């Protein structure tokens, strides 16, 4: 056991030390290292870089890695969840959005240090996650689902703020992607005491934390209070992870990887994990940071992006270790009543038609609110009609696809945005951006379709092996979405001249919608609505489970393949025309169910109408609320949908 742990820490450390020494020798001769450390010659640029950039970067990589390793160990012990870490429980997202708001609109809050702002944001988001998960006894599934929704909401808010402040977007993206670049000792000297205090507090809590391996009753019989212990452990972990975000941005998956790797290497007890996980985290981040500096890219990849690329595959490997139990998540947002549906669908069609007309004729101009006359409409139609058609078509496609995914997987949280299908489509399109400078619409559709199918292929085996393990299916999608967002961050931090276009597209904008986009989206949505009624029998049977489906004569392989294609194509088109960020595919099926549309066919059409109405409303509000500026429709839908979905989860827990 000891040999494996030493190798786990020692091998990356030796390789990182070699790369560090090689980098130092390129910067400064070895005989000048000690002298430049104590008495830096400010007239020598090499010594300045060595003393105020290279060495602080080396130190912060070790300190941040150790902090994340300890944070992951504490969270996994407190929550009894091997997949708990600051990213999956929403702490990082809360700290990030708080720092983004303060940086853009209240810089005076940062005068006393970024740490307090990050701590407030991380603590609030974590409390929101715990409040949503409390009703289901803080089960691993409940915490991860709650963390996912909170993280998506905070990420939407951050993206909206950056889209509204394009002049700072590149710097904010680099920082949010986890950059270890340093300019002096200030960050290192500010972060080291926090790490020392957190380490002392963690070891003072060692005995009560160790008793959490028992049941709550067993821990209480030994004189501890599990609730107090969990609160204390969570406080230390949240504080430490928030400080890390304030210091270096979001470093993904080190807090997940380090405790998992040391456990696999033989660290069975909590004391062993609390000692070895920080060491493993420090060496992993140190090595990662050295590797990104020697890779032959035109610009340096942020360390947080590199760790996401490494950590997402690790998440797949760890999924089988997540303990599962039958849960009530499927009933979390269930409806209180049933309806036959069709009369209400006719009313919905009427409401949708009125909304489309209002979006077309009502707007704001230099003189204020205005209703377009027939003569003005002729001039406005070429500008507004493509946007409206794209928004309603994309919303309808996402609503139908969300319903298909939820019924196919039996997972109430399934949606193209959540399970990584939208992320896979966007990843395919981004790879096309990298591969060629001349990007055509057919090529983007093909690349997005391949990416969506690939992401579905990655998550589908998990669902087949564990048909009732909704958490594993969900987290597989989280891993795919993480890889896609990591690659997006690489593109956005690269200084690509198409950066403005990429930001607008990734945030869900209809700004550049053309007549061709509207035609493609409308034809795809119409074809989807014409085809899905043929799958109704499958969609009624699949939620009953795999055994029942086989018993009723379904060929599950063939059914899944057909449904995967029906999911991938519309998701690709919707992602292409409006971007990957939206809650529509998640919300529309639940809203349809809440309104009483329980059967498959009425739910599909109700979800389509609700999805279309949501995105049209978001697009109209986005172009009128802060006129003459605009808010991307996808971002606005996500920002409104996230809190709304949290309200539904809160009601469902009671």
Automatic annotation (TrEMBL):
One of its GO terms (biological process) is siderophore-iron import into cell. It comes from the Bacteria. Keywords: Cell membrane, Membrane, Transmembrane, Transmembrane helix, Transport. It holds the Pfam family FecCD. CDD domains: TM_ABC_iron-siderophores_like. It is a multi-pass membrane protein. One of its GO terms (molecular function) is transmembrane transporter activity. The chain crosses the membrane at residues 6-28, 54-75, 87-109, 141-165, 186-206, 236-262, 274-295, 301-320, 341-365, 385-405, 417-437, 443-461, 473-493, 513-536, 573-592, 604-621, 627-650. GO terms for cellular component: plasma membrane. InterPro entries: ABC_BtuC-like, ABC_transptr_permease_BtuC. It is found in: Cell membrane. Belongs to the binding-protein-dependent transport system permease family. FecCD subfamily. This is Fe3+-hydroxamate ABC transporter permease FhuB. It comes from Mesorhizobium temperatum.
């Amino acid at each position: 056991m000891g040999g494996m742990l030493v190798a786990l820490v020692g091998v990356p450390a030796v390789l990182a030390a070699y790369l560090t020494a090689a980098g130092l020798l390129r910067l400064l001769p070895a005989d000048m290292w000690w002298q430049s450390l104590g008495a830096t010659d400010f007239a020598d640029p090499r010594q300045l870089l060595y003393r105020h950039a290279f060495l602080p970067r080396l130190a912060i990589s070790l300190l941040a890695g150790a902090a994340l390793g300890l944070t992951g160990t504490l969270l996994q012990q407190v929550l009894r969840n091997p997949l708990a870490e600051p990213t999956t429980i929403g702490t990082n997202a809360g700290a990030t959005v708080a720092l983004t708001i303060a940086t853009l609109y209240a810089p005076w809050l940062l005068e006393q240090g970024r740490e307090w702002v990050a701590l407030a944001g991380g603590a609030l988001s974590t409390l929101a996650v715990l409040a949503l998960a409390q009703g289901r006894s803080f089960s691993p599934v409940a915490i991860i689902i709650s963390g996912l929704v909170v993280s998506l909401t905070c990420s939407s808010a951050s993206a909206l703020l950056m889209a509204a402040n394009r002049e700072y977007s590149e710097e904010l993206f680099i920082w949010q992607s986890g950059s270890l670049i340093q300019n002096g000792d200030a960050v290192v000297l500010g972060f080291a005491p926090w790490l020392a205090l957190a380490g002392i507090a963690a070891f003072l809590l060692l005995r009560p934390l160790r008793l959490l391996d028992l049941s709550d009753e067993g821990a209480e019989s030994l004189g501890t209070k599990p609730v107090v212990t969990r609160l204390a452990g969570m406080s230390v972990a949240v504080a430490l992870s928030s400080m890390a975000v304030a210091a270096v941005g979001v470093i993904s998956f080190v807090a997940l990887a380090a405790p998992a790797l040391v456990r696999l290497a033989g660290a069975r007890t909590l004391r062993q994990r609390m000692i070895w996980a920080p060491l493993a985290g420090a060496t992993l981040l140190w090595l990662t940071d050295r590797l990104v500096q020697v890779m032959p890219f035109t610009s340096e990849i942020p360390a947080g992006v590199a760790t996401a690329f490494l950590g997402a595959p690790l998440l797949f490997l760890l999924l089988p270790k997540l303990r599962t139990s039958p849960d009530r998540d499927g009933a979390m947002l269930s409806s209180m009543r049933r309806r036959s549906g069709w009369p209400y669908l006719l009313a919905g069609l009427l409401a949708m038609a009125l909304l489309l007309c209002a979006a077309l004729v009502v707007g704001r101009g230099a003189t204020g609110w205005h209703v377009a006359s027939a003569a003005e409409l002729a001039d406005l139609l070429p500008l507004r009609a493509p946007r409206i058609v794209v928004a309603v078509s994309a919303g309808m496609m996402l609503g139908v696809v969300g319903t298909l995914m939820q019924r196919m997987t039996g997972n109430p949280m399934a949606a193209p945005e959540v399970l990584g299908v939208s992320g896979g489509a966007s990843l395919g399109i981004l790879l096309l951006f990298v591969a060629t400078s001349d990007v055509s619409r057919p090529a983007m559709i093909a690349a997005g379709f391949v990416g969506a199918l690939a992401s579905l292929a990655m998550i589908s085996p998990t669902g087949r092996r564990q048909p009732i393990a909704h958490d594993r299916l969900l987290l597989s999608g989280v891993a795919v979405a993480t890889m896609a967002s990591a690659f997006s961050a690489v593109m956005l931090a690269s200084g690509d001249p198409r950066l403005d276009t990429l930001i607008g597209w990734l945030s869900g904008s209809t700004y550049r919608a053309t007549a061709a986009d509207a035609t493609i989206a409308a034809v795809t949505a119409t074809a989807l609505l014409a085809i899905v009624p043929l799958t109704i029998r499958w969609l009624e049977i699949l939620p009953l489970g795999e055994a029942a489906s086989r018993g009723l004569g379904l060929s599950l392989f063939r059914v899944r393949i057909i449904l995967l294609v029906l999911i991938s194509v519309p998701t690709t088109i919707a992602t292409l025309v409006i971007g990957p960020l939206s809650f529509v595919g998640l919300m529309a099926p639940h809203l349809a169910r809440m309104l009483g549309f329980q059967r498959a066919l009425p739910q599909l059409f109700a979800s389509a109408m609700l999805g279309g109405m949501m995105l049209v409303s978001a697009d109209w509000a986005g172009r009128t609320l802060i006129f003459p500026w605009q808010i991307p429709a996808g971002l606005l839908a996500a920002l409104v949908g996230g809190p709304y979905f949290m309200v539904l989860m809160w009601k469902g827990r009671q």
